[in-house]
Amino acid sequence: MFVNDPKDVDKKIVEEEAKHLRKVLNTFTLYKTHALSSNNRRRTDYYSLSERHKALIPEQLTKLNNIDKAISKNYHVLKQILADGKLFTGEETSFNNDKDVDQVTEFDMDKLRSTIKQFVREWAIEGQPERDAAYKPLLDALNESFKDISKEERASIRVLVPGAGLGRLAFDIVQQGFSCQGNEFSFFMLLASHFILNRMERVHQYEIYPYIHSFSNIVCSDDQLKPIFIPDILPSNIPPNSNFSMVAGDFIEVYGEEQHTEKWDCVVTCFFVDTAKNILEYMEIFHRILKPGGLWINLGPLLYHYENSPGDMSIELTLEQVKFAAKDIGFRFQVP
């Protein structure tokens, strides 16, 4: 009989995480090369048109040239994010493409493009309507639940936000006077959230172009080339005494261990529970880490991420089943 040495298992996990992080950093590094190459393909396609067809879209080359410039501006921001890579790796980030650990895939690059778009949703004026739709009901429920707690005492109320993304919901909770910890698994999100939460010196400090990577369903070129300025609010402006932190790692690994004794007054989940391979495990952890009488406030669909993922476990429950299981686990529903 052969038994894995726990030290060897832990070492392998650390090595895999380090390898994945280097791949994420490589994706940031190769963004400009990849994006310019994609845009140049469109330029080549334009040149393949007949002269008559070229004459029908006379502004196309100008548009593609402007997108090249926008790509360079995006890369300027990504380089600022990469400068913090040493905080996660313990070493300076290399910009030498020849040292790539793994070949960056289109899937990796799509994650980076999604991260750039998420800056709009979480840290731009243009994202306010979406934040109002998703975050405001959560904040209203949180404030209503602790309405008898004075602003001065709210810092003692500890709120956990799993799947915190770029940290805006957690920040907004802190803005209400509560102490809050965000938890995020994606290195793409962690790098970007560290940048936005810790490196901003003024409102609208950086200019990004999140819409230039897709040419589908565009009404006009001005929409596609619209600059977005971030952040819309300075993340360092938080109430005194409130504690705000972000923790990296898989939610189950960080909070799911039986020896995890840290207790929370409230867990707030927004578009998170359906990221679980087993939603029942998430709910059990929520219940275990909450103080007696603690609250779980949730918003989002049951659009299970692993439903059609080959080789991955996925438990997909109806809302009715989720409610039944939650009650059995020990929750009771509270009408706002």
From TrEMBL:
Its EC number is 2.1.1.22. It holds the Pfam family CARME. InterPro entries: CARME, SAM-dependent_MTases_sf. GO terms for biological process: methylation. Transmembrane segments: none annotated. Coiled coil: none annotated. Belongs to the carnosine N-methyltransferase family. This is carnosine N-methyltransferase. It comes from Funneliformis caledonium.
